[in-house]
User: What shape does this take?
Amino acid sequence: MSKKVLRALACLVLVTALALWVATGANRGWTKTTVPVKKTDEVTGITVDDYQKRFVPGVDFLGAALVGAGILAGASFLFRNKQTQTSTWKEQPNRT
Assistant: This one.
């Protein structure tokens, strides 16, 4: 992998996580896997919370995405730039 690929991947991870977080409601609390839904009993009229399984990412999800993107971006600094060598020597033909 090269520098550009790692940095592009880091950007993609961050933007995707942010878009998912916003699309699912921008929950500013912790990530939830179940969400309470209020239901009213038709006979008694009592309102109760019924839990539905649903993934709602929170700020910890954003934090994990930020750390992952930071690791990818930081790993890109481990690669060196390719340096082209310019030679002042002229190649001499082989004289044998």
Summary: The beta strands are 32-40, 47-56. Residues 22 and 61 are 12 Å apart (CA to CA). The first strand starts at residue 32 and ends at 40.
